[in-house]
Design a protein that fits this description.
The chain has one domain: Tetracycline Repressor, domain 2 (Orthogonal Bundle), CATH 1.10.357.10. The protein has 10 helices and no strands. The protein has helices at 8-29, 32-39, 43-50, 53-73, 81-98, 102-110, 115-128, 132-136, 151-168, 175-193. The chain is elongated.
Length: 199
């Protein structure tokens, strides 16, 4: 990722403001003027350090995706599927608590229609982040699943449930409360998908 040598407090204000405005408005409708007003910094500062709106967007994408990806991938140690997901979701919740618009921003990136921008986003992803599967699946003990249960489908179902829970609590949440609720859902899914001796 491009090194940005500027005071950390100003960089954080730009990151947070840009994340929110791109998440809410998309790349085309979000303006640098809105971002600098929200960040409380000068327009010249954005252009001096980031160059232009596209470079700011791509920097932000790499920062946001890397924030989630790097922290979660480092947590993939448990052989138990639900323990591994529980830990990764705990980290994801902590990231959202730190940067409330990070997941909204990453979801909005998927909807961008500008072909050149999408090509640049794809290139960042290819250059910097190996596919999730390459990191998540190795070491998982799939033998704990009931006969006939497909591991990848179970992962997808759990992902839908945890993502849905985050969306439900998007407008402010107490980290411990959401994590406790998530634990309840994971416990129910463990009963549904695991052999009795592993529940």
């Amino acid at each position: 990722m491009q090194e940005i040598h500027m005071p950390e407090d100003k960089k954080q204000r730009i990151i947070r403001a840009a994340m929110e405005h791109f998440a809410k408005n998309g790349y085309k409708k979000a303006t640098v003027d809105e971002i600098i007003a929200a960040a409380g910094i000068s327009k010249g500062l954005i252009f001096h350090y980031f160059g232009n709106k596209k470079k700011l967007f791509l920097y932000l994408y790499e920062f946001a995706y890397g924030l989630v990806y790097d922290r979660i991938v480092k947590s993939f140690e448990q052989a138990d599927l639900f323990d591994r997901i529980r830990e990764s979701e705990r980290i994801k919740l902590a990231v959202v608590n730190e940067y409330p618009y990070v997941l909204d921003f990453l979801m909005s990136v998927r909807k961008e229609t500008d072909e050149q921008l999408q090509e640049a986003i794809t290139q960042v992803k290819v250059d910097r982040f190996p596919p999730w599967k390459e990191n998540f699946l190795p070491g998982l003990d799939a033998s704990r699943l009931r006969e006939g249960i497909d591991l990848e489908k179970v992962i997808k179902i759990i992902s839908w449930a945890t993502d849905g829970l985050l969306k439900e609590h998007k407008d402010g949440f107490v980290l411990e409360e959401v994590f406790a609720e998530m634990d309840e859902y994971l416990a129910q899914m463990r009963k549904a998908f695991y052999k009795e001796e592993y529940q």
